[in-house]
Each structure stands twice: as C-alpha cells, then as structure tokens.
Specification:
This protein is about 90% helix and about 0% strand. It is elongated, with a radius of gyration of 13 Å. The chain contains two helices and no strands. The protein is an all-alpha fold. Keywords: Membrane, Transmembrane, Transmembrane helix. It comes from Lederbergia citrisecunda. This is Lmo0937 family membrane protein.
C-alpha cells in the first residue's frame, strides 16, 4: 500500500514539473511520502 502511494505521488510530482500544476501541495505530499518510506525502512529493520 505504501509503495503504491509513493509511486502515485512521484508520478504526480513529475507531472507537476511538466505541466506546472499542483504546486506546493504535490511537493508537501511527496515529502510526507518520503518520510513515511524512511520510517518504514527503519522500523522494518528494527523489528527483524
């Protein structure tokens, strides 16, 4: 589920660069997705 959200946000982020739509919202959502991704990596390694 997390990978799907990250993938969608990256695609929207790239479309925002090309079409100049979304602005800061896309960047904020991408940062949130990256923070969740890093947290998931750290928590997953610690749990094993």
């Amino acid at each position: 589920m997390l990978w799907t959200i990250i993938g969608i946000l990256v695609v929207l982020w790239l479309l925002g660069f090309i079409a100049k739509i979304g602005g800061a919202l896309i960047h904020i959502l991408l940062i949130v997705a990256l923070v969740l991704f890093v947290f998931n990596l750290i928590a997953g390694k610690r749990a094993k």
